[in-house]
Design brief:
This protein has 325 residues and is mostly helical. It is 89% helix and 0% strand. The protein folds into two domains: 131 residues, Methane Monooxygenase Hydroxylase, Chain G, domain 1, CATH 1.20.58; 168 residues, Methane Monooxygenase Hydroxylase, Chain G, domain 1 (Up-down Bundle). Helix 1 runs parallel beside helix 3. The chain is rod-shaped. GO terms for molecular function: actin binding.
Length: 325
């Protein structure tokens, strides 16, 4: 019985030792298997990153950026798994059950490849960010050019209204456009600063530099024409107001001429006093109208001196009014 008991104990000891050796072996090969899976995953991502471009327009770059963000999430998850596998390798080394050469070599190899993968990922992310900044800059520049072209068509219009009311309405609209043009001045002036912030490969391109110069020139033309249109509208408004004033003065002259032509010399003293009172009122009215006519003459002189295209018509209207008065 004692012999059998001793044999049983030896068998149990051998079984326990065998179980430990098998467990250690399982942990070792599990470790190598996980490391191989990590290497395979790294190789796959290296191939994907090597084949990836940075896009050819804003839409494609944004799509690639979103995909890259997804990959960064996968990278984080894989990093956590690799960290756990490395801990398993360290535990195996601590047990000293197997040769440490193969384990350490594998851990060092995978660590180096992982570090290289993170560097490649970081570089690709930087290229995507550079491309995104460039295409956003290009898109914003294109939008600015389109706005400037539309604005140029508006400010170069030859519609100055057909009367006082329409000219005032056009002038109000034009002043709103001028305000918008002025608001865009800072945006245009900042283009060169934005260009300087782009990656060297993008900012040193001849096309993008020419584009910035074209935008600056176009803005200068828009601003210049906007100023001219402001003056043209003000001149047109002045002309229509002058015509309106001339018309009002001539209506007054017509009324007084008709009254003077129809007036008869009164025979009664009371009637003479009434007529005399009317003449006194006429004299006051004439002084008032004279002031309005002097204002008309001043406006006409300003328009003529300014080279207004309707100078001849304005001068003729002035001469007619002065001759009638």
């Amino acid at each position: 019985v004692n012999h059998v008991q001793t044999c049983l104990e030896e068998l149990e000891e051998l079984a326990a030792k065998r179980r430990k050796e098998l467990e250690d072996s399982r942990q070792l090969w599990t470790f190598f298997q996980e490391m191989e899976e990590a290497e395979a995953w790294i190789r796959e991502k290296e191939k994907i990153l090597a084949a990836k471009t940075c896009g050819r327009d804003l839409s494609s770059v944004m799509t690639l950026t979103n995909k890259h963000k997804t990959m960064l999430g996968e990278l984080g998850n894989r990093r956590a798994l690799l960290h756990q596998t490395m801990k398993k390798g360290e535990k195996i080394l601590a047990k000293k059950s197997f040769s440490s050469v193969g384990i350490q070599e594998k851990m060092r190899e995978v660590c180096l490849r992982w570090k290289k993968l993170e560097e490649i990922t970081g570089l690709h992310q930087q290229r995507l960010e550079d491309a995104l900044n460039f295409f956003q800059f290009s898109a914003e520049t294109d939008d600015l050019v389109a706005w400037l072209q539309d604005t140029y068509r508006i400010v170069s219009s030859d519609d100055f209204g057909h009367d006082d009311y329409s000219s005032q309405a056009l002038l109000r609209k034009h002043r709103a456009v001028v305000d918008e043009v002025e608001k865009h001045r800072a945006t245009v002036l900042s283009l060169r600063k934005q260009l300087a912030l782009l990656a060297p490969d993008h900012r040193q391109g001849v096309d993008v530099q020419i584009r910035v110069v074209e935008v600056e020139q176009l803005y200068g033309e828009v601003a210049e024409v906007a100023v001219l249109r402001t003056q043209w509208l003000q001149d047109a408004l002045a002309v229509y107001r002058m015509f309106s004033e001339v018309h009002a003065c001539e209506v007054w002259v017509d009324e007084k001429e008709q009254w003077l032509e129809k007036m008869e010399v009164p025979e009664e003293l009371d009637e003479v006093e009434v007529v005399q009172h009317r003449f006194e009122s006429l004299d006051q009215e004439m002084n008032s109208v004279m002031g309005r006519i002097l204002d008309v003459n001043q406006v006409v002189q300003q328009l003529v001196d300014g080279g207004h295209p309707s100078s001849d018509e304005v001068r003729s209207c002035q001469d007619h009014l002065n001759s009638r008065y």
